[in-house]
Amino acid sequence: MPTKRIPRVVWILGMASLCMDLSSEMIHSLLPVFLVSVLGTGAEALGLIEGVAEATASIAKVFSGVWSDHLGRRKPLVVSGYGLAALAKPLFPLATSAGAVLVARFADRLGKGIRGAPRDALVADVAPPELRGAAFGLRQALYTLGAVSGPLVAIGLMSLLAGSVDSVRIRSVFWIAVLPAWAAVALLALGIKEPDQHADGRPPRSLPHWRDMNVLPAAFWSVVVIGAVFTLARFSEAFLILRAHDAGLSLVWTPLALVVMNLTYVVCAYPAGKLSDRIGRVGLLALGLATLIAADMVLALGHEIATILVGIAVWGFHLGLTQGLLAAMVADTAPSDLRGSAFGVFYLVVGVATLVASLLAGVVWQMAGPPATFYVGAAFSAVALTGLLAWRIRFAKA
User: Fold this and answer.
1) 277, part of any domain
2) Domain that includes residue 92, residue range
């Protein structure tokens, strides 16, 4: 189906995601090396910072999703979340310790958590069911385009600042990253007009109670379980950067790891979402899990930089196959008047799993080395794949 049929709101949300992720990835592509090489922290501290940050984002999505269902409006929370993330960006260049970086990541990811569930619910509200996979895929593709651009800009700026010491170069890039974050806030504040009520015509509901979670069907809860196990397999991408640096990639070129990952991600995110509208979600998601197992094995067994970059590219391919599909599966299985709450619950469980995954990755990396970290990821991927196939047998349509 042609992309011109996708509602304008989805395009604006996607462009805002592009700008914000351009900013975030300019920072994130250099942050692991900044922590380890400039601030002198270890892999365990990196795992703690990344785990706490991502868990914060996911936990916050519960409350923002529930509140957006109560208001019957998504835009105020979406703009507030992007605004908080933009305010947090200057904290990164000002950081002088791992604790300061943790505060910056916490504030940044809290903003992500506030905007996440209402934004995804808004996509589901405005997109007709027959275009839902394509709409989520498009937003994810634009988001990932920003993720590709951010590390490339970081590489260019690091090269231009070659005469300065490493800490000054990295902090300068962090300061410049503030600008696209504020562009995202302006785009949303001025460009979004949301529907007055949910897509199916129902009026806004009263504030949901936790007892309302009993209304969510078994198919939804099964998606939550699969997503949690999947997340245990997919720890922070910061470890991909460290893996490339460990293999010999220089400081200036470490952002290349995220460029490679996000190139394959952006190429397949929209086609995968669109294809899922025609053939179903589960088969593509299973392919994504199998791809993640392959990526983990390459990253565990590889030694040369070229081999590690191939593994990172395959990792990006699995993201393109799965990220939009999991969101679409939540939308498919949740009642429309509890859609924000459903996304919130999903992201809460995934957030806890993210914290566990990143802490585990950091500990395994520190105690047994990089290959063991990716072997553990492959094992969790196999468990998630088994659960997904069981889900298909019970819930998926023929």
Assistant:
1) yes
2) 3-195+212-394
In a domain, 249, yes or no: yes
Q: DSSP states of 214-252 as a string? A: GGS-HHHHHHHHHHHHHHHHS--THHHHHHHHHTT--TT
Neighbours of 234 (CB within 10 A): 25
DSSP string, 274-333: HHHHHH-SHHHHHHHHHHHHHHHHHHHH--SHHHHHHHHHHHHHHHHHHHHHHHHHHHHH
Radius of gyration of the chain (CA): 20
Distances (CA, A) of 339 to 69, 121, 380: 7, 6, 28
Predicted confidence (pLDDT) per residue in 108-126, tens digit: 988 888 887 788 878 877 7
| pLDDT tens, residue by residue, 27-45 | 988 888 888 778 877 777 7
Averaged pLDDT score across all residues of the chain: 80
Residue pair 226/395 in contact by the 8 Å Cβ criterion = no
CATH number assigned to the domain comprising residue 186: 1.20.1250.20
In-domain check, residue 385 = yes
